[in-house]
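Appendix B, Record 12. Input sequence as logged:
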Amino acid sequence: MLGLIMAIIDSSIVNVALDTMAGNLGASIDEISWVATAYILANVIVMPLNGWLTAYFGRQKFYAACVAMFTIASFLCGTATNVWQLVFYRIVQGIGGGALQPTAQAILFESYPPEKRGQAMAVFGLGAMVGPTLGPTLGGYIVDNASWPLIFYINIPIGIAAFLMTLAFIRDPSYIAKPERGVDWFGLGMMTVGIASLQYVLERGQHDDWFSSSAIVILSWVALIGITGFIVRELRDREPFVDLRVFKNRAFTAGNVIGVVSGFGLFGLNLILPLYFQDILGFNAWQSGLALLPGAMATAVSMPIAGRLNNRVDPRWMIGAGLAMFGISAWLMGDLNQYAGYWDIFWPRAIQGFSMGFLFVPLSTATLASIDRGALANATGLYTLIRQLGGSLGIAILTTLLQRHGAAVQEGLAGGIDLSNPAVRAFLADPATRALHLQLLYQMIQQNVNSITYDYLFRLSGLLFLISIPTVFLLGARKRNEDASTSVIAE
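Logged structural output:
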C-alpha cells in the first residue's frame, strides 16, 4: 500500500506546482507541462506488462525494484536544475510507478480469502481513490508553505519503508511460473509506440488544436496501427506476454467498461474542479485542496462500509448506487455559480466521494473474482491501464469542451451587449467612466461565461454516469459461494 500511495499521489501532486516550477526552472508553460505528461506516458507503457514482468523477475524482486526506482527518481526530481532534466527523471519515476498500482492490487486480492476480498479492495481503494484527491491538497500546502522539491522528497522515507517491508513480507507465489520464452521485442515495440502515441494524443490534443496539428494526426495513425498490430500479435501468440484473452471473461470486460466511466469521473472531474475553484471562486492552491478534501474523507468512510457489504449485497446494486450517487452529485454541482461558498461545495463533493467506495470496491471484486490467480497480475495491469486511459479520455473531452463550449457561450452573451440596449447605453453613458465600465462589463461577461461552461461540464459528467447505470447488468449475478469454490488463500 505504501508504494501504491506514492505512485497515485505523485500522478496529481505536481499539477498545482507547475507554475512555481516553471518560474524556478526558467521554463515556459508548454515545457513544464511535460513534467506531468511524461510521468503518465511512462505509467501507461508499463501497466500492461505487469503480468509478464512479475512472472519473469518474481513478485518480490519486481515490486522491490519498482519501489526502489520510484524512490531514487523522486530524489533526483528534487535535485533537477532545468526542466528537461526534471522531465527525464519523471519518466524514470513513471516507469517505476506504473507497476506499483496493479501489483499492489494483485497482491492484496490474492492474499485475502474470498469472503474478505471486498475488505481487501476497500483497503486498496483508500490509496487508489483517495490519493488523487489528497495530491492537490498536499501539493497546494507544500507550494504555499515550502519549496517545490519537497513534493518529491516526501516520497523518500515512504519509499525506503516500502522497500524494506517488501523484502520482509512479500513472497513469490508458487503458481506464478517464469515464462519459458524471452522478450517479444516486436510485440513490445508495437505496444509501446501505440499506447504512448494514444496517451500523447489524449494529453496534448486540445493544446495542439486536435487534428489541425500534423503531429496529432500522425500520432493518431501511429496509435491505431501500433495498437491494432499489438492486439493481432498477442491474440495469435500461444504464449503472449500480455494475455488479451482475459477479455473473453464477460465480467472482466464489463468491469472495464464501467472502469472507463469511473476513470472519466475520477480523473476528469479532479482536473476540472481545481480549475473551477480557482477561476470562478478565486480560491488559491491550498483553499482548492481544502475544497476537495470532503470528497477524500467521504471516500475513506465509504470504503470499509462497501467492503463489509460486498458479500451480503449483489455487487451490481452497489455499483449502480455508486454510479447514481456520483451522477446526482455532479448534476447538483451544475447549479453552482460564482457566488458559491465552501458549504455550497461541501455536500456535492461529500456525496461524490462517498459514491467512490460503492463504485470501486464491488467493481474491482466483481471484475477480478473469476480470474485465475496465476493471471491476476496480467489482469490487474490491463484493468489499471484501461481505467487510466478512461481518465485521460475524460480529461481530453472535458478540457476540449471547456474551451469550445466556453467560446460559444461567450459569443452568445457578447451578442447581447449592444448600444441599442437601454441598460448598456445607460451603463456606458458617462464619458469619464466609460473605459472603467467597459472593463467591468468584460469581466462580468467572462465570469458568467466561465460559470455557465463549468456548470455544463458538471451536468454532462453527471448525465454520463446516470446513463451508464444499465451496464452493471453485464456483470451478471454472482452465484452463492462462487468465490469460495474457485479460490483459496494465496501462500
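The chain is about 75% helix and 0% strand.
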